[in-house]
Amino acid sequence: MDIPPPSRTLLLVGLGGLLVGSSFGYLLRGNARSSTVLRESSGASNRTDSFAAASPSSAHSLESDWANDRGAAPAGGTVDFVSEMRGAMNQVDEWDRLRRLHAIIDHLDPADLEAAAAEVRLLPSGQRYQVAWILGERWAHFDPAAALAFARKLSANDGRSAIMSGAFQKWVSVAPDAARAWLEALPPGQERTGFVQTLVSAMAKSNPAAALQTAMTLAKGQRETYVYSTVFSQWAADSPQEAAAAALGLQRGTARDNAFSNIASAWAIKDPAAALAWAGQLADSRARRNALTSATSSWASSDPAAAFAWARSATTDAELRKSLVSQTLSQWMLTDPATAKAQVLALPAGDERTTALSNAIQNLARNDMPQAIALLAEIPAGRKRSDAIRQITYNSDLTDPAIAQQLYALLPGGEARRELASNIASRIAQNDVNAAVTWAAALAPGDGRRQALRNVVSTWAQSDPPSALAWVLKNDPPTKNDNTLTSPFYSWLNSAPDEALNWALALPAGKTRDDLAANAVSHFANNDPQRAAALFSSKLSAEAQGRAASNLAAAWSRNDPAAAAAWASQLPATSTRQDAIRQVIDNWADAEPAKAAAWLERMPTGAERDSAIGAFSYKAAQSDPEGALAWAATIGNESQRHNQIENVTRTWLRNDPASAKKWIAASDQITPERKQQLLKEE
Predict the structure, then answer these.
(1) How many angstroms separate the CA atoms of 106 and 92, rounded?
(2) Is the pTM for the entire model greater than 0.70?
(3) Angle of the 542-559 helix axis to the 575-591 helix axis, nearest 10
(4) Cβ atoms of 36 and 43 closer than 8 Å
(5) How far is CA 315 from CA 9, 279, 289, 320, 324, in A?
């Protein structure tokens, strides 16, 4: 249906789907961080668990442990869910942490699981995945489809993948056919492939041949390799010959090569000679090398001396031998580092020795960092030593500032050193924020100091945002376009918005306060635009309003464009109001184009109306180019009018060249010269 020009009767047109707001039916308690409550056990015994027969629950013992640990709440009392989650996640012992999480979440009434899942976003980012996964698993006891449907509406930062993973894995374990039917309705993509892997992994435990057929049917795209690996690893552990025969039936490519490697690895655990013999006769050279390396590495985990001796003499292929020797020594370093180190140092100088040293150092660093650092001196200075140091910092528990400084001192200045400084600072901060701050602050400005401090502050702010941000303001005030302060502040807004806002507003007047308050406006605009508008009017300077108005208008108009338009219209007549109105129209034209057009007709002529019509006609050009051109023709500014008419025409030429050319030929709104130019561009 066409969008009429302003002189015709307004008709509804399809410029995009209506924005549908959803309510989860859970009332928030004032300004508290969390509204979800734990309902006490009086009703727990009456819950209906649709999967109870298939998957007995350990809820009784867990709830008893939980009650013993924290004391039962008074009858009819409530417990703040997010606070309980934070308390559980702060447990140092991993088992104690998991036990408390399971007990608290199992204690939730089924009716409250959705609201609890919605509040995962209020947790610090590092705590969300584990909590969300357990919530998803628990919810799947009662209604896995509902859990998955809810999670699919979330953003990646709100626990989406974790809730879905927990729920789907539980569903597969008790009702695999129903889980598969849900899975098959998903669109292709990485998320769907992940669920295929979960389904196939469960099937492979009892029927690997059927699991393989399912993988071949459902797994498509780049991640199908991982799905096949899951099947063949489990299959080869029980029947390597059958798995090998099945793998030969796969199409040539990465998926088949990886299947060969998984088979060789599992086979070598039971019979290394047979595994190596099979891998050695594979026709494809790349597949053969990978399978031999996997088998040798697996063998080395149980008999590194024999595997190393075989690797040294098994082939004349220098590259293959380097890989085999490196793998065996890496495994040996885990069980007998002294002997493995002696074997590495006994190798003749050259690439094989350097590669073996690098891999051995990575494994040694997990248990004996001083020895690993000492071995680094055996690698010639240069790129390979830098790469080895980088790998240590990423793969080791590097929390000792003295050790960190030794590694840092081994690198020359440059990008590698700056990158290392950032990583070291983050690692130290996870264990001791004060030590991390001291270490990073002592760096020279050109050696990654600022990025290292950013990383420390980011980690610090997850547990104590006011102290972290106060330190930044006192010791390292942010410069222009520096997010050292704003990034952790926005995270604080997500977890405790009122605390963060009050802290920011207590700062002295100035740019820092304005910037943070503007961040708060953007945050509240998504779920409480009236509060955001009040904050905008009462707390922001004129300059800060100019930066925040467009964000507020854009967020508000996605849910209530009429209210957003009314708010934007009452702003002072400056470029801030013009930009805000344009943002409103941009969203309104997608959701309710007829209402947006009616509102535009009531606007007085001038720059604001011209700007808004530009936004409206740009959106309209996709579905009703003639209507869009009629609107563009009403723009008062001549230069803007001609530019917008040509922009709409270009869009029309891309979408429907024949109709666009016919209109161009008959139009008196474009000069002959510009007509020729537009047609040439097409």
Answers:
(1) 21
(2) no
(3) 10
(4) no
(5) 84, 13, 11, 7, 10
Separation between Cα atoms, residue 480 and residue 466, nearest integer Å: 21
Mean pLDDT per block of 10 residues along the chain (682 residues) reads 37 28 26 37 34 30 36 40 86 88 90 91 85 94 94 85 94 93 86 87 90 84 72 91 92 88 94 95 91 94 94 87 90 88 90 88 82 86 84 72 81 78 84 87 80 88 90 80 79 88 90 88 87 90 87 90 93 90 92 92 92 92 90 93 92 90 89 85 70
DSSP code at position 21: -
Q: Which helix (H) or strand (E) element contains residue 320?
A: helix 318-335
Give just the sign of the alpha carbon dihedral 287, 288, 292, 293.
negative
509: alpha, beta or left, given left = phi > 0 and alpha = psi -120 to 50? beta
214's tokens: 């399912």
Give the closest residue to 127 by CA, choosing from 524, 497, 494, 498.
494
Count of CA atoms in the C-beta half-sphere (13 A) of 144: 25
Asked if residue 667 lies in contact with residue 679, where contact means CB atoms within 8 angstroms, the answer is: no
Reference 54, options 138, 173, 166; nearest CA is: 173
* Neighbouring residues of 169: CB distance < 8 A, sequence distance ≥ 6: 137, 198
Q: Distance between CA atoms of 607 and 160, rounded to whole angstroms? A: 43
Task: Please check whether residue 182 is in contact with residue 164, taking contact to mean a CB–CB distance below 8 angstroms.
Answer: no
Which sign, positive or negative, has the C-alpha torsion 366, 367, 369, 371? negative
- Reported as half-sphere exposure (CB side, CA atoms, 13 A), residue 279 has a value of 31
Q: What does the block give as tokens for 621?
A: 């050009």
* Closest of 132, 107, 88, 102 to residue 37, by C-alpha: 107
Helix (H) or strand (E) holding 338: helix 337-346
488 closest CA partner among 448, 457, 519: 457
